[in-house]
Amino acid sequence: MEIIRRLATEANVGYSLRAFERSDERDIDLLDALAVLRQGEIEGEIVAGNSLGEWKCKVTGIPWGHRAQLAWSWWWCGSNVYSL
To answer: Which residues share a beta bridge with 13?
Structure first.
């Protein structure tokens, strides 16, 4: 989680087209997703991705001003983290 938080704090975050679509469907602001990435916890396993050095996980947390927990899937490779 330390690596993910560091990358998110350095603003090395990208969002897929699917992330934009899902955020609209779920009425989630992508800044809230970023807040969960910076402050949340990994839920479940960290799994290897398809490429060397690529990893995937789900991060959950409750963004400031919300009552419900938000879960978002992320993958990271090298010095960047991306939303799935």
So the answer is: 81
